Amino acid sequence: MYPAPFEYYRAETAQEATELLSKHVGAKILAGGHSLVPAMKYRVAAPSALVDIGRLNLNYITAAEGVLKIGALSTHATVASSDVVKHNCAIIAQGAAGIGDQMVRNRGTIGGSLAHSDPQADYPTLVTCVGATIKTSSGKSYNADTFFKDMLTTALEENDIITEITMPVYGSGTGGFYYKIPHPASGYAVAGAAALVTVEAGICKRVSLVVGGATVNPVRAVEAEAYLVGKAPTSENIKAAAAMVAQVIKNPMGDGYASGAYRTHLAGVASERTLVEAVHRAA
Amino acid sequence: MGQWVSITVNGKNYTREVEPRTLLASFLREDLGLTGTNIGCDSSQCGACTIHMDGMAVKSCTVLAVQAHGTVITTIEGMAVNGKLHPVQQAFWDQHGLQCGFCTPGMIMSISYMLAQHPNASELEIRHQLEGNICRCTGYQNIVKAAMQARDELHHEHHQHMQEQH
Q1: ipTM of the complex
Q2: Structural domains in chain B plus CATH codes
Q3: pLDDT tens-place string over residues A134-145
């Protein structure tokens, strides 16, 4: 399978990439290419030109003053194996380790995954859960909570490039976990849930619970979060909270493999399992 | 229209003009005649097209040849040295780690990368890390046996090498 013909431009700097994008109307940004190239091969996408940003200096991971910074071109493999990520925001490394397979993780990038915003992808759910900020080459910053707008659609403006993802670090007392129920063939999440739980003196002080896969964008399980805060993280309380997850799932997607009702059910199952593990890791 | 790429494949540098939409798998097979790299699903699922690009296992059906400009690539043809099979190749031979053989080049490239990353991989870890390679004959038992033999052999080679240095 070949993509439709396109013009190819390789950018060396973010500024050059922006110039190329504004000069070539209809051009798309190519990073690792593991969402875009398959879409082009299926002819779901047929951009007239590609601007390759793969060589920009956006492959870095740092942590300082309570903030973890991940360059947009960091591959899933880099994030998954990074000690800096593991020490400062472990849920992101754990989630990245489960994306695709080892070859896909060697090419796919965090910025590309967020820009593509596949409803079954893991990163949108993960970054929403940790309260990440998505920064772009034009100087804009988006909260993950309001970044994902619709099916394969984000708040990103035309020709803007994701450059960095920042997130607050967490330490002992807080546990995080991402649990996905993957499609048996594609490996994509039929439902996935990410949880961050802070436990103090046996009581949940802060709870972040986000579910993806069932809807076009990840959703925050606000009722479940509110229910758990101030309570002990017992299995009964977690079960009761997970039962509230269905309330936030509006218009679930359905297909031949998994109906909307089934995905909604799985979102609750994934939420319960991920909360149990997050609480365990908070200890 | 055409784009010049310069890519080192199995130790030899090739400079070619390619159409930008040329996939790396097709470039290897059709421009360079290295047909050991197979195209199975053509949709980044099956792993038959796995090669090493700058030391990383990647699916060459999902990389554009233009993206590989300036990289160093190893394909299945570059694994044997002076007629001696790579330990992973030898293990596939010894354990009969193949049936029709179509997935084999990708399996070998994937396993050799995996063992470089995780020299002590357990059987379970090997199975887990192999999720990106599909054998349509379902001959996984012997493939996993081959991976374990190769793991042990590579350990043995490593120790011998260390002893020779002392």
Answers
A1: 0.95
A2: 3-78 (3.10.20.30), 87-165 (1.10.150.120)
A3: 999 999 999 999
